[in-house]
Amino acid sequence: xxxxxxxxxxxxxxxxxxxxxxxxxxxxxxxxxxxxxxxxxxxxxxxxxxxxxxxxxxxxxxxxxxxxxxxxxxxxxxxxxxxxxxxxxxxxxxxxxxxxxxxxxxxxxxxxxxxxxxxxxxxxxxxxxxxxxxxxxxxxxxxxxxxxxxxxxxxxxxxxxxxxxxxxxxxxxxxxxxxxxxxxxxxxxxxxxxxxxxxxxxxxxxxxxxxxxxxxxxxxxxxxxxxxxxxxxxxxxxxxxxxxxxxxxxxxxxxxxxxxxxxxxxxxxxxxxxxxxxxxxxxxxxxxxxxxxxxxxxxxxxxxxxxxxxxxxxxxxxxxxxxxxxxxxxxxxxxxxxxxxxxxxxxxxxxxxxxxxxxxxxxxxxxxxxxxxxxxxxxxxxxxxxxxxxxxxxxxxxxxxxxxxxxxxxxxxxxxxxxxxxxxxxxxxxxxxxxxxxxxxxxxxxxxxxxxxxxxxx
Length: 458
Ligand SMILES: Nc1nc2c(ncn2[C@@H]2O[C@H](COP(=O)(O)OP(=O)(O)OP(=O)(O)O)[C@@H](O)[C@H]2O)c(=O)[nH]1
Ligand SMILES: [Mg+2]
Prior knowledge:
alpha/beta, Gyrase A, domain 2, Four Helix Bundle (Hemerythrin (Met), subunit A), Rossmann fold, 7-stranded mixed sheet, 6-stranded mixed sheet, 13 strands, about 45% helix, binds guanosine-5'-triphosphate, binds magnesium ion
């Protein structure tokens, strides 16, 4: 499984802070700590587990005191990793905490690899694979929504669901395998029909959860929204207004924005990655032309586009070509400069892009922005049904996809009257897919890949 050595890392972010934590895990965690820690009252004696001890860290070689610290000792198995864990809470100076770590390593610990603490927690059965991965999502969550989803998975909601599905599948598998072991009990027609119903019901459940992935992904990674339109209509002004700060340059000169600028905003609990782009127009300038190509490319990639039009001017050929380019794409028409007299034929716009709602705003005066944000959120979450269990991880989605495909094959084998052995093979494959998710079966390289994404000290 893994080498039972003792690992250590700084568990808090680099930089100055109130406290910084050096985390140590493994059989030598306590002996190493005892070499460098000195309890403030008397001798170290029996350091109680799951208790904070006040004292100093000193270099055992020179006797020099490095810092005044709190030490938390958590003896196995009730610790994050399931091994003996010690955490030294020292003052949060980057130099200081590195010195403490240096001492710990000098006393025999090895620097931990990315995610190694969480990997050990998994290998020791403290967490299953879904929960371990969700720890990473929790750390990375940027909004309430993302955090809620991750926390649900850390607590094991998805694992429980997959576990129940696996149990149901095992029940079915037992029936099918009985028919293999006792050929005279080859599955009866009636039983086949009953089994088919059960397998199909399982498959439906999986399909429904796979559909929740898109929804979960929006919350985890943020929805990508591209602001597009011809030059000078106020795209950058709108970008700044939505952001609430003067992030990009705004000028009356057409062709101000040349590159794609990216920033994050939250629409309630939904994180959004917002792109400001170069105005789309025919241009001889090679730099600007690259920008224009990029705008169109990003508009195609995004989950939704905000097509900005200048409400004070009539429709131009560029406006037409942009509306054409994003036809069929999820989006809104943002008619900007509502503080100026209306010069745009709104009826024409609605008739030309009937699938996109039209919203009038003034980026300059901040009018209509709340309505725009509300409509954008609705649009992004449209048709994405909230399900009790939400998939957020592409690995889980792929494994469930494989399980679903195998179940579909099993249904077909049952309908076509194939021998029980063949039905069992498909069911077994579906079971493997489910077990891969929670890590009942997992290969080393899958684990490597998963934990490499973690930070050091986690
Ligand atoms: N009156 C009025 N002027 C606006 C509004 N929004 C933007 N403008 C003006 O329109 C001009 C162009 O604004 P930008 O935000 O730079 O437009 P853009 O679409 O990003 O332009 P490019 O980057 O060149 O494609 C500037 O002079 C802005 O001050 C608005 O709501 N009302
Ligand atoms: Mg601009």
